[in-house]
Amino acid sequence: MRKIYLIVFVLLIPILSLNFTYLEKLPFIKISGEIVSENESEFSLEFDRMGFLILDGKTIDISGGNTIMRVKKEGDRFKTNLYCGDRFGVGANVYVEIREIKRPEKYMVPGKDLSTSFEFDTDSMEVSVNINLYNEPVVPMVLVIDNGIEEKRIPVEKSMKITEKLKEGDNKIYISTFLKPLNIEISRTEIIINFKKMDVLKLTIGKKEMWNGGKVSFMDTSPFIISGRTFVPIRFVSESLGGTVLWDGEERKVTIILNGKTIEMWIGKNYAYVNGNSVLIDPGNPDITPFIKDDRTFVPLRFVSESLGMKVIWIGSFQEIFIFNPN
Fold first, then answer.
1. CA dihedral 233, 237, 240, 245 (to 10 degrees)
2. Which partner from 20, 49, 85, 130 sits 20 to 30 angstroms from 1, CA to CA?
3. Least confident window among 172-181, 186-195, 314-323
């Protein structure tokens, strides 16, 4: 019987290993964009897991799936910025910008004479740029692609696709068109994709488990809600975010230090000091104060997190809280 148990355990090891690898794996994020007119572009976003998705400051999706939105031109560029995180505490920040440095008004007008689109996903870490002309080019032209490392030159055709490998961090790709006989630049477009993986802290009301970066740990007490405010055991949460927590027993004061910011709070007091400035913890409810329960100091989560420059997302349907650093 022991041999059978041993065989089953050995067989389970690779399965368990694959499962934990999946938990730490970045969610699949796919972003497509197309310039549909001179002043408007369309972005399509796909997110494959349950969690949260914030686009340009708005929480637009918490269950995975596709989202399409139109973006107006700001000056000479179209841009969008998203944050996402899954229920295992794995997330990413993706910033995309399309900038027209030199417009091809005389020869090609976006949305009228040509369409430019791109597609980027976190699995392949590649961006594909598609350029389609509605008519055959009258004058021979050359397309120049510069990714900061090498330069490629290809003849302009009615339909073209360029694929470039990206890295985590800043990526800039310049796409220029030149009149072939005279080597005169007639257009120049810059595509910026800034991709950064980030850890997200996920807590659940009434549960001791805490997910961060695909790894789970356990607190000895759980978050709960009082008067519509979420309270958390501050030492567990702050230290998981990389902060430092100090306790002064004489003053009954807790000090939290993170991201170059310092918060001082007193048990039973409805005010705090943030970088030396006095502020109310909850202007709408003076009864919200830090307190001690089961030898643990509990503080209002949103006030502390946002005072430290963190972003807090509340998913009411699952009683889940996501905390991450947007910078």
1. -70
2. 20
3. 172-181
Task: Find where tokens 């909850």 sit.
Answer: 282
The whole model's pTM is what? 0.79
How many CB atoms are closer than 10 A to CB 161? 11
Radius of gyration of the chain (CA): 26
Domains and CATH numbers, the chain: 23-198 (no CATH), 200-324 (3.30.457.10)
Measured from the Cβ of residue 222, the count of other Cβ atoms closer than 10 Å reads 16
Residues 6+ apart with CB under 8 A from 12: none
Polymer length in residues for the chain: 327
42's CB contacts (< 8 A; 6+ apart) are 33, 34, 36, 68, 69, 70, 71
The secondary structure element, H or E, covering residue 237 is helix 234-240
Amino acid code (one letter) for 261: K
Side chain identity, residue 263: I
Q: What is the per-residue DSSP string for 86-124?
A: ETTSEEEEEEEEEEEEE--TTT--BTTTEEEEEEEETTT
The number of C-alpha atoms within 13 Å of 128 and in the hemisphere containing its C-beta is 10
Strands 209-212 and 141-146: unpaired
Q: Which two tokens stand for residue 37?
A: 């007119």
Burial code (b: 16+ CB inside 10 Å, e: under 16) for 51-71 equals: bbbbbeeeeebbebeeeeeeb
Residues 206-229 pLDDT 10s: 999 999 988 999 998 899 999 999
Supply the DSSP symbol for 149.
S
* Helix, strand, coil percentages, rounded to 5, for the chain: 10, 55, 35
The token pair at 197 is: 């993986």
Predicted confidence band of residue 169 (pLDDT cuts 50, 70, 90): confident
Question: What is the rounded CA–CA span in Å between residue 19 and residue 140?
Answer: 54
